[in-house]
Amino acid sequence: MAKEVKAKVIESAEISVEDKLKALFQLQQADSEIDNIKILRGELPLEVRDLEDEIAGLETRIANFDEEIKTLNASTTGKKNEIKAADDLIKKYKTQQNNVRNNREFDSLSKEIEFQTLEIELCEKRIKEFTFQAKEKNEIVDTSKKLLAERQGDLNIKKKELDDIISENQKEEESLQDKAEQLEHNIEPRLLTAYKKIRKNARNGLAIVSIERDACGGCFNKIPPQRQMDIRQRKKIIVCEYCGRILVDPDIAGK
């Protein structure tokens, strides 16, 4: 058995409760029509946003890899310069060996030549590593660029679909937005805040519903006869004790 909750009441002496209810119901109708227009767009706005995020991620990924490839290429160039310098030193030491005065000088130069030879081998090893890494990253960049082109094509298609839908309903939506804003000006701030809060929490965006077959038009729970009488008298604003929506009688709703 559902726990009974006292109905919330929002009152003001500035304008009649009946006028408040009528303004709220008209605002709900305008907002619902705007909702229906947005429903026509379906998941397109979300899909467009997701594609834009994915494209931004791919662009960042490509830029990062390009920077890494640039660094690897610079490192390769540096190692090649080191090899050239080592080669020059080896030639220099070999020339000096031809003019040594004793075995000690010859052995010392031989060690220098051996050291520079090892340096060349190490540089060549690093160059191979850098070249392999750069090749791998270039392949990733190529794949990412192809994927980026595909996603950009998808985004262009989705954006065109969305723009077409928006342009078809733009005038109607702008008119409804203007109408909703005008109605909001005629509703006291406290009541408007309550309406928006209820609407935000309602699954279908309905904050104002009428009585239908002795039940709430939002959650379809039965409304006691005395409560229905209070709603028809329009002396206070009453919300459904089950779903929290503001209730109006069928006459205000035009039913």
Look at the structure and give the CATH class of the largest domain.
Mainly Alpha
Strand content: 5-15%
Mean pLDDT rating? 89
State the CATH architecture of the largest domain: Orthogonal Bundle
SSE series: EHHHHEEHEE
Structural class: mainly alpha
Strand order of the largest sheet: 1-4-5-2-3
Task: Tell me what you see in this structure.
With 255 residues, the protein is mainly α. It has two domains: 93 residues, Helix Hairpins; 125 residues, Helix Hairpins. Helices cover 72% and strands 6% of the residues. The chain starts with 8 loop residues before the first strand and ends in a 7-residue tail after the last strand.
Structure in a nutshell:
By secondary structure, the chain is mainly alpha-helical.
Blueprint (SSEs and pairs):
Layout: E1 9-10, H1 17-40, H2 44-97, H3 103-185, H4 189-201, E2 208-212, E3 215-216, H5 225-233, E4 237-239, E5 246-248
Parallel strand pairs: 2-5
Antiparallel strand pairs: 1-4, 2-3, 4-5
Helix pairs in contact: 1-3, 2-3
Give me some keywords for this one:
disordered N terminus, 255 residues, 5 strands, 2 domains, 5 helices, Helix Hairpins, five-stranded mixed β-sheet, rod-shaped, mainly alpha
